[in-house]
Amino acid sequence: MSEKNFSFDTINQELLKFLDESPSSFHAVANQKEMLEAAGFTRLLEGCKWSLEAGQGYYVTRNDSAIIAFRIPKKDFAGFQIMASHSDSPVFKIKANAEIEVEKKYVKLNVEKYGGMLCSPWLDRPLSVAGRIVVRTPEGVKTKLIKVDRDLMIIPNLAIHMNRQVNEGYEFNAQKDMLPLFSAESGENVKGSFLRLIAKEADVKPEDILDTDLFLYNRMKGTILGLNGEFIASPHLDDLQCAFASLKGLLAAEPKDSVAVHCVMDNEEVGSGTKQGAASTFLKDVLHRINAAMGRSEEEYMTALASSFMVSADNAHGIHPNQPDKADPTNRPYMNEGIVIKYSANQKYTTDAVSGAIFKALCAKAEVPFQTFHNRSDMLGGSTLGNISGNQVALNTVDIGLPQIAMHSNYETAGSKDTAYLTEAAKVLFSAAVCGDGDGNYQLKW
Description:
This protein is α/β, with parallel strands linked by helices. It has helices at residues 8-20, 25-38, 193-202, 237-252, 282-293, 298-306, 353-366, 385-389, 418-431; strands at 42-44, 57-62, 66-71, 80-86, 91-102, 106-114, 127-137, 140-147, 181-183, 209-218, 223-225, 231-234, 259-265, 309-313, 316-317, 339-342, 370-373, 396-401, 403-405, 412-415, 433-436, 442-445. The protein has 2 domains: 3-89 and 235-445, 3-Layer(aba) Sandwich (Aminopeptidase), CATH 3.40.630.10; 91-218, Aminopeptidase i, Domain 2 (Roll). Strands 1-2-3-13-4-14-18-16-17 form a 9-stranded mixed β-sheet, sandwiched between helices. Helix 4 (237-252) packs across helix 9.
């Protein structure tokens, strides 16, 4: 596909809107549900029997923070073509009994770190709160999404006059340095003031809120910047940029021989070891139920896995303009130069010669550029959800991502062309079939 055929501006505006409306993993999943339902997908519940039809699209959620959507082309499908990403980002979670009164003049909130974050970007900027609450009802309990849509809090820096060495390196203490300033109330009004605010936002009584999963979020909206609009900057690019591109690819795809599966897991930033994480049975359960609902045997399920392919899509480190020496000397991905294929000899990434070759062929079919990433040999890199998911569903898998800088900041930067590239690659993946002919040999059917 020639570059002139890409609608870079259109997809970037859609992405920025999606990111702005997704301040938590719960909102990210809710927004994907809305997109799927607008496209005619039918919701399934894990607790109900599934009745599936060939030619139709369906989706199912777990914990309201993970989602799997799929299209079934026919009963005798060859396999599953999967793109997996994650919905969560490093953030501060608000603790129970959150209010801390300071000298009867200030109220700050007690928070804890979720995931491995850059702390300093959270300082000195307007913040608010988003997530979910669980409330009492006559029938039991009910979940409600919360997004306080106003500048509400700030984590103030300490003036340089009181710490002259701060620019020489500072170790942030999450319990001391990173607590947000909430109000100037005092006395009896302090205790429960945060929960009263949330109750008012949710239009419920404070005493009916049984529990919460609430997080700080950055109020700065995403934007397009650079001399010629080369870059996008926003919260949550890692990994909602990949999740968004995967979903857009699914909605544009035309599966013929294989089931197209868009999979977004939660809790990747804290190890994926939850019921809605990549280490859970969520993906395995869904694939099994698709197979069973189409009247296929367990043997047919196993043969389908042998003709399946997974793309583990989680953003990659691009070359940093101020720190280019932090990257590998011969594998140097840049923003706007294509999808990054990630390799690691210690198997932190799942890519091997076979899966890498298949993905390169897929990019060639999609006419999108690709690049390669290795960590420097003297630096320990991160991992992602591909190898963890493989403990539940063993598939030929490639790890990829879109190049970005300032990963795990609460305001990250990426290229303005790369979302469109991954969307097109996802469209080709979801329309294709990767049929196994024995280890290392595959027929690629477009």
